[in-house]
Amino acid sequence: MQPDTSQEEKKEEIKPIEELPLDQRVKIASTYDILERIHPGCLVDALDKVNKWCVARVLDFSNNSFRVNFDGWSARYDEVTLHKNFRRIA
Fold it and tell me: Which of the listed CATH numbers 2.30.30.140, 2.60.120.10, 3.40.980.10, 3.40.50.720 matches domain 40-90?
């Protein structure tokens, strides 16, 4: 008995998100609730004050804000972000 290849042929190739068009990545990101997954100590991509995406570690997380430390930068540059601005975190 030969394997049923018709099922395999119908499967779409799964691509890394980096290879998807921007509109598809935005659609996927809009369904992802980042706030449910943020906790102290986790690494995130964060948009800094000069609109540059940087790696950051979440230091504190509360009901209405979180504080991050940008990788390689002193605590002087830590930022507090209100949840209403969560789009600055990826």
Answer: 2.30.30.140
